[in-house]
Every structure is written in structure tokens, then in C-alpha cells.
Amino acid sequence: MSGITQIDEPQNVAGPRAPVYRAGSYADIALIHTKLHEAIATSPYYSDEFKSYEMARLTREHLASLIDADPYHVLIMLSDGKPGGFMISGPELGTLWLYWSYVFPENRRSSLGISAMRAFIKHWDNGRFHKIATYTKHGNEAAAAIMGRMGFEHIATLNNHIFGEDYLLYERPLTKLVPGYDRGTPGGLLRKLQRKVKLALQK
Question: What is the rounded (10 degree) CA torsion for 125, 169, 94, 122?
């Protein structure tokens, strides 16, 4: 995922700083896929129909395609050097969409979510996109608080937007400098087969 500004979190005053995130890899897909479905299934904000749709859409192959486009589209939050959450994103029509952000339950009382969001923004403010966009729902006050703190603006409430439910659109501007637009991973049967082989080798 191109040029990167690393954001670190101190473990102690005198000691070295530990990274709070890294790029995803094929070796991470099994864990992230499991935890992603956990995030979807346990969320109190989404309908059963939406959950079913998301679980069917966000397959291991889909995560692999995002990693092929740029490994930082599957950003791994780190807690003591181990995966503690994730942020999944992708390019759509020139905009960087943040699809899902999830802190594993055992890390909920830490500052990992804030640190990772700050790192995500710093990393992606690399000239490739005009803005970050994401959806949330009424009642998800924790997400709204983090986004407000990180410079996102509630642009609109989209009524009856997805499966008849209202969604809140949040956006944060970035500085686009690179000509052209990121179109993600090129498709084609050969690339799909290559991904399937690489995934099979991880088992």
C-alpha cells in the first residue's frame, strides 16, 4: 500500500516503540475471515438480511483480492505484536471505503482502536485518494465518537438505503496528488485461479 507514515505506540518511557499495525498477508486470511464473521454476527446494529449478505460477500477469496490490490487494505491491528483487530478497506470509484473495523473483544479496554484509526488515516493520506468514506448506524455511538475525533464528518443520513434500513454516511478528506484513480485488483480467471492456489497453500 505505497508510501507509509508509521504510527507507533510507546510500551514504556525509555524502551523501543512497538508498531500498532502492519499489512495483511495470505497467512492472516484464515484468522481475519473468522474474526470478520464474528464481528458481523455479533453486531447489534445490522439486520439478519444484511449480515447474511455480508458473510456471503466477504469470502476468503475476497480478502485475498484486497491483499492483492494492496496488502494494507487488510490492515492488522497489533497488540503486543500479535493481531488484536483489523480494518478492511477497498477502492471504489476513486474513494477509499472503510468497510469494517473491529477490535477483538480481549482488547476492547485498550486504545488500540484509536491508534489503528490514526495509523490508517496517516497511511492512506498518501496522494492516492480524495477521501475516506464509511457507513455506520444509529446507536453506534462508539464508532461515531472515534470518527468525530479522527476528523470524519457526518455527511448524510441515507434513508431506506440498504435492505430498507437507514445508514449514516461519514467522510474524511484526504489530499489527492497522484493522477488517475485506483481501480483495485484487475480481474480475470487466471488471477482468480492464482489466488485459489495461494490460499490452498496456506492450509
Answer: 10
* Rounded Cα distance, 21 and 79, in Å: 9
CATH topology of domain 16-181: Aminopeptidase (3.40.630)
Instruction: DSSP letter for 43, please.
Output: -
Question: What is the full DSSP assignment across 169-190?
Answer: EEEEE----SSS----S---HH
Q: Which three cell numbers stand for residue 121?
A: 488515516
Beta strands, E only, 20-164:
21-23, 74-79, 82-92, 95-103, 131-136, 153-162
| This prediction's pTM | 0.86
Domain segments of the chain as ranges: 16-181
Cell numbers placing 70:
494492496
DSSP code of 126?
S
Residue 32 main-chain phi, psi, to 5 deg: -65, -40
11 class by beta-carbon count within 10 Å (0-12 exposed, 13-18 middle, 19+ buried): exposed
Q: Residue 53 pairs with which residues in a beta bridge?
A: none
Half-sphere exposure at residue 39, Cβ-oriented, CA atoms within 13 angstroms = 20
Q: For 53-90, write each residue's pLDDT tens digit.
A: 999 999 999 999 999 999 999 999 999 899 999 999 99
Contact 78, 19 (CB under 8 A): yes
How many Å apart are CA 15 and CA 78, to the nearest integer? 17
- In angstroms, the CA 77 to CA 180 distance is 29
Residue 21 has φ and ψ, to the nearest 5°, of: -160, 165
